Each structure stands twice: as structure tokens, then as C-alpha cells.
Amino acid sequence: xxxxxxxxxxxxxxxxxxxxxxLEHRGAIDVVNVPVADLARRRLLITTRxxxxxxxxxxxxxxxxxxxxxxxxxxxxxxxxxxxxxxxxLEPRSISDAVELGYHxxxxxxxxxxxxxxxxxxxxxxxxxxxARLENLITSRRVGVTVLDEEVHDPHGSAEPSLTxxxxxxxxxxxxxx
Length: 178
What we know:
Blueprint: E1 2-4, E2 9-10, H1 14-25, E3 29-34, E4 43-47, E5 53-57, E6 68-72, E7 77-82, E8 85-92, H2 95-107, E9 112-115, E10 118-122, H3 127-133, H4 135-139, E11 143-150, H5 161-164
Parallel strand pairs: 1-5, 3-7
Antiparallel strand pairs: 2-6, 4-5, 6-7, 8-10, 8-11, 9-10
């Protein structure tokens, strides 16, 4: 098991991007998919796509993020990929429906964000488990429901295609005469 005790930086930082590019061409970048809910954790046991077990124990002043470089040397790198986050989009039909929806969601202590006139609930389980708790509002058509998938982006820049999916399949528009 590999112990990780700090985040080295972002894959977009100039000091890492060129070396990561070189390693990527050799197929030497391993990605660790971290669920969005676990990005704030400082201690985590997790396995990379390549099967390497990691014991992550970060200092208080560091957090994981999409694109975090955990290890880089001449032979390989390990980079964090935040899993996409799923949201339950709840659209109340009236102000009274919105108040009742807010009451229920608040009592259930669900993690939410607001999107204009809709309420977005972070899905940390099956959507059916959430909609069952709001069944009366949904079946009476007082609240509309949609499930959304959202990509998570590196706080230090935008997502780069070559590390967002399988490295072998990702296109990257540039020349290879280096």
C-alpha cells in the first residue's frame, strides 16, 4: 500500500503539466477516481484504476480536488479524477409547493444547492431512495423531478480531456515531434 501524505499540486501547473504529458504518452499515469463526497476527506483508503492501493493522509491545510497530483517521478504519476456528481433536480410548481419541499429536504438534512427556481439535491445513493421520501409531492405533480450528471472541475483550471477519461482514448490536439 502506497502512503500519500500531501498533494503535490495541480496537473495544470506548468511544473507538472509537461512531465505529465510525457508520462501520458508512455501510458504511465494512473488515475484514482474519488467520489465527490470524499474530496473533502483528509484520510482515505482507495484503489487506483491500475489496482494500486493508496492510504491518503493529508495535512489539515490540503484537500483533494479533480486534477490533484499525488505522485510524480520519472516512471509514473498518480492523479485524482473526481467522479461526476449526480443531482436530483426538484422543480416545485408553486410557492407553497416550494415551501413544503424546502421543509422536507431540510428535515432530511440533504446536501443542496439552489438553481433559480429549482432545488438541486446531491445524490449520494440511488435516486429512488430520495424520491420515495418525497413521493406525495412527486406523484401529485406538485414537484417535477430530473436526475442530472455534472462534471466536477479542477479549482485551478478547466478539465483537460486526456485525464478525464481513459488516457488511451482521449484526443489531444497538438504535434508529437518533441
